[in-house]
Every structure is written in C-alpha cells, then in structure tokens.
Amino acid sequence: MKTAYDAQNLMDAQLVCDLLHSAGIPARVSGAGLLGAAGELPAIGVVQVLVPDDELERARAVVADWDAGEVPDEEELTRLADQAPDDDVDLLA
Q: Hey, which of 1, 28, 49, 93 has its CA 20 to 30 A from 7?
C-alpha cells in the first residue's frame, strides 16, 4: 500500500477515500486511531489515504483533479471505474 493523500483531518481523508472508491480505486484511511494521541499538535501526515501500489498513479491523478476543483462527474467516474482492474485487492495486506 502506498500513500495517495496526506489528509488535514479525518473528514478530509474519508472524503478522498470515498472519491477514490467512486473512481473504482480501492482505498483505505490509515492513522485515524492516532488522532487522539496528537492533542493540540497538528495532525498533518498522521492521517493518510492508502491505495494499492499499482493504483497509486491513477489515485494521485484523481486527487489532483479534485484538489484543482475539477470534481469528476458521473460519466467520468464510470469511465475511471471501468479502467479499474477486475481482481479483488486485499486492502489489509
């Protein structure tokens, strides 16, 4: 698993994770359990969105478009999902 996105907070991470799922990219949020230990310190780099190694480039492209304000419409999400590999990915591996 590789880091596709360093989130500002848990809600930010979940939003990106859901966006990637909509594009047919398996993703999971990592580090959410560490937020309570951070206290008043900034949590940048603690919460991340992880994707399988072979999906990193595609995931970063989707996130870059989202960051630029170019949220994919339903047609684009369907196209991205159709490009996704058919095999199941074990996200816990």
A: 93
